[in-house]
UniProtKB/TrEMBL annotation:
Organism: Falsiroseomonas selenitidurans
Family annotation (Pfam families): ABC_tran (PF00005)
Stated name of the protein: ABC transporter ATP-binding protein
InterPro entries reported for this sequence: AAA+_ATPase, ABC_transporter-like_ATP-bd, ABC_transporter-like_CS, ABC_transpr_LolD-like, MacB-like_ATP-bd, P-loop_NTPase
KW Transport (keyword) present: yes
Length: 239
């Protein structure tokens, strides 16, 4: 699936997510979000803790079935992907996730962690490893390719997780604070790699971040509050 630049990769229509909180009361984590992410664009999502940023990524990434509204990825309604197994397969093929925590598989090396999804998809092992090393190199982590996660620093683990998210050439990349564990130079490098995936592969990239230092790399910035998108601006444009 190669998206055409300027066409929507992801469409959310009035998406709501409600959770039952610990006290039994319902929490409206997403209160009706409508959003299109276009092929080739990188969007930053900002907002206070608890405003629904992670929930938005979970709904967009088909990890959370919304309570209301509709999600469409590359023209396919998520509701039409019927079983959990089919949904998992759909995600693995089309979506790259970078979570707040790296969640690498401890018994696999960095390169094996990156290569795994490719191997599952039938890419020959040697080719998968070559691509894994190339992705790690783009993130300045190739020298750690043979190490297991336990012997990597937090920032190195996070860069491996970014490489893993990009391995299957996803049309949609969703990253939740991917630079929180990184110094500013490496944080910027991760953001630049994500942006190059948008530009070169025409993927849509959404990044939740609190980090104002990479604002100039975003095509659009969405501000969230209280489960909604409350403002949208283009960096450089008047707020
Ligand atoms: N599984 C869950 N069960 C119940 N409530 C939840 C669940 N997940 C999130 N919430 C609630 O939904 C709201 C939105 O949470 P979310 O994790 O999306 O916020 P966030 O913007 O990502 O915050 P942070 O910046 O702290 O990561 C919060 O009030 C949170 O407590
Ligand atoms: Mg969050």
């Amino acid at each position: 699936m190669t998206p055409q630049p300027g066409t929507p990769v992801l469409s959310l229509r009035d998406v709501g997510v409600r959770y039952r909180g610990g006290d039994g009361a319902m929490v409206e984590a997403l209160a009706g979000v409508t959003l299109d992410l276009m092929a080739g664009e990188m969007v930053g999502i900002f907002g206070p803790s608890g405003c629904g940023k992670t929930t938005l990524l979970m709904a967009a990434g088909l990890l959370e079935r919304p309570t209301s509204g509709a999600v469409q990825l590359a023209g396919i309604p998520a509701a039409a992907v019927a079983t959990e197994a089919a949904l998992r397969d759909f995600r693995r093929r089309h979506i790259g996730f970078v979570f707040q925590k790296p969640n690498l598989i401890p018994v696999l090396t960095a390169a094996e962690n990156v290569a795994l999804a490719m191997v599952i998809d039938g890419v020959p092992a040697a080719e998968a490893e070559r691509r894994a090393i190339a992705l790690l190199a783009a993130l300045e982590a190739a020298h750690r390719a043979g190490n297991r996660p336990a012997s990597l620093s937090g920032g190195e683990q996070q860069r491996v997780a970014v490489a893993r998210a990009l391995a299957n050439d996803p049309v949609l990349v969703l990253a939740d604070e991917p630079t929180a564990a990184l110094d500013s130079r490496r944080g910027r490098q991760v953001m630049e790699v994500l942006r190059s995936i948008a530009r070169e592969r025409h993927a849509a990239v959404a990044v939740v971040t609190h980090d104002p230092r990479s604002i100039d790399l975003f095509d659009r910035i969405l501000e969230m509050d209280d489960g909604r998108i409350v403002a949208e601006r283009r960096p450089g444009a008047q707020a």
